[in-house]
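Technical note accompanying the year-one report. For the benefit of new consortium partners, we illustrate the data format agreed upon in the data management plan: each record pairs a sequence with a C-alpha cell string. No post-processing was applied to the example shown here.
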Amino acid sequence: MKDLLNTNSIKNNVIIYGAGKIGRRLSETLSNSGIKVIEFWDKDADIIDNLTDIPIVKPNLDFKDKNIIIIIAVFSDSIVNEIKNNLLKKEFKKIISNRDEINNLLYNSCKNLDHNELFKLNISKCIICPVISDTRSFCNIFEKNIQKLNYNKEIS
C-alpha cells in the first residue's frame, strides 16, 4: 500500500469508499501525510452528515480515471470483497482493501506523532479507530496514553 500511495505519477489523489468513522479517520491520516482525498464514495451519501470539505457522493463506477487509488474503508470483510469485485469489474486498477494494511497506516501515523511527542490522546477518536476496535490488532500507543492519564490522576 505504501508504494501505491507514494507513486508520484498519480499525484497521491485517492477516493475513500466508505464515509463512516473508519473512512473519516483514514481521510484525516492521509491528509496529514500530504495525500489528497478527492471524494468519499458511500451508498448512503444522501443521509450522511458531511463534517469535512471532502464531498460525499454515491459510488461512481463510471469514474473516468481508472488509475485513481480507491481505499475501501469498510469494516465487514464480506462487504469489502463485494465492493472490490464490483470495482474490478469496472476495471479500476488501484484498489486498497486489506484491513491490516489500513490499520498499519493508521497505527504508523499515531506512532510517528507519539515518537515526536506530538500525539494527543483523543478518546472519542481513538475509540472509533479500527486499530483498537479490530480484534486482529493492538494499539500500544492508546494503552500507553491511557496509563499516563491514569497515572496523572493518581498523582493529583
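Partners are asked to follow this layout when depositing records. Strands lie at 13-17, 36-41, 56-57, 69-72, 94-96.
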